[in-house]
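Sample pair:
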Amino acid sequence: MIYDRFQQEAIDHINQGHSVIVSAPTGAGKTAIAEYIISNSIRNNLGVIYTAPIKALSNQKFRDFQDQFQDNIGILTGDVSINPQAPVMIMTTEIFRNKLLDEPDSLNKYSWIIFDEIHYIDNPERGTVWEESLIFLPKHMNLLGLSATIPNIQQFANWIESIHDKTIKVVIEENRPVPLHFLFQCQNEIVDKIERLKRLRSSKPNRLNSLIDYLRTNDGLPAIYFVFSRKRAEELAQDLYGFKFLDTKETRAITQMYEDLLARFNLKHEQSAQILYPLVQRGIAYHHAGMLPTLKEVIERLFTSRLLKVIFTTETFALGINMPSRSVMFDGLRKFYGTYVRNLKTRDFYQMAGRAGRRGIDKEGFVYTRINPQRINFEEVSRIILGKPEEVKSQLNTSYATILNLYEKYQEELFKIYPLSLHYYQSRKNEQRQALNLLDAKLRLLKDLGYIYEGKLTEKGKFAKTVYGYELVLAELYDQNILEQLDEFELGVVASAVVFEPRKNQRMPHSISKSSRALKRICEETYDRIKDKERRYKIYPFSKLPYFHLCSSMETWLRGTNFDKTLQMTDCDEGEVVRYFRMSVQVLREISQAPIASYLLKDKIKETIRVINRDIVDAEKQLREG
């Protein structure tokens, strides 16, 4: 194989036994470096772990690598475990971090860890997991980090070098193999320079039809249209119904392929699949997190067949999933960032824009941005598209479970671990002091609540250290002997409540069962006591409140009812319900892995998982059948 300059540079460093971090644009071909390590390791009987930030990407990599390397590939994501003894294991970063803390010896057989999208360390919700994974990286493991373009990549590498006795080689590629050409739709005109936007004088609204006509005329298809709302993705796709992008032969081909895939994934009678039918026959589709995971996979496969010409999708489609197109369109340049809507980060813009331009097919990719001057000024447009990508910053916020695991090993010495963090490396003295104070406050709270006593973890502490993210509420319920007394239904309801996160202004169902009402009261009282303590110790953000919005759906599903009837019990999208049910399974597994959980509790959990994890919820089945 002939490698590009940056790929060969990285491979040369790898052959010399070095760890490597690669910073390159989306679509530049970073995966080829990972594939080199995997094939080389298999040849030399060495183990490799490949981590990805989202399960959809883990699943895709499992399929791709399995095609190349057959039985040498396994996957472990919390709700999926296939071929777990394979020499090459794909897993979410959370699973890897948990292994580092809970069972480090299980990693002895692996020589390499590959972090895909390593810039995710900057993610406010989950970045801590990447940081902890890098801090506790075993000495015997070499590291390959694959990253989008980030300006402080050398600082990032220097930090890793400073805490591990190993050289980190940095490989930077600024150019894409397929260059991008930027165009703008503003006041319903298409222009190719930001400066020209300022000269437009008409006050016409942007029309989607005009933009699509322009793409068709200028050989701009297939195209991905990024939009920051699930509902809008569907509405825009329906707005395009008047267009027919396929000829008779192509229509027959995509119809046959769609029907075959629906049959394979048992989706023929799903209403959501039927709604997409007339759009698919015209070469149009949408894709977002509210859809059934199996239906999303069907759409992805149609897109890779090149028969889908326009797909309306949310930004998760840009994250590592290998779905390039000739053009990318942006509905706008503003999105919701956790707590408020703001203009796009340059890095996020290029993560999506980088899907334009298919290597080996297109000489250049085209990126169209729809501009409404009343929502964003031209200076901001220029900053987003022409500016420097944002630096990666630590988002460290160590969980109670991590603290308990560390305390078990290091006792009070655990405070010496914070100076190993990226947060410490990047922060000023007062920020370092605040971080240490927060760590100290969390430790004092754990002692106050009886998780630690006389330098050792109590039974409650041993329970909490296995349940990341939901540890205090579940451990308090365990300590009050409530978990042990719950039946299989109630265990499912509690699991769904601890993982569920309502959308803004989403309301509870009007009527819930008597047992769920009682559980809700117990959980809320327990949570209030925890929050009271956290407030007193000045710990922020507070632990997550259990939300019982899905309790009726979970009860219905646990009774063996079909998915359509289960959906009628909630206002959540079907994809959300599947995702939360899968997350419930993962939490229940973590509870049952607690060494001090009784056999009675473990048996009940096993039964609860068996009933939840069926049909459309069964992620492992989806992967095996796919």
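The longest strand covers residues 180-186.
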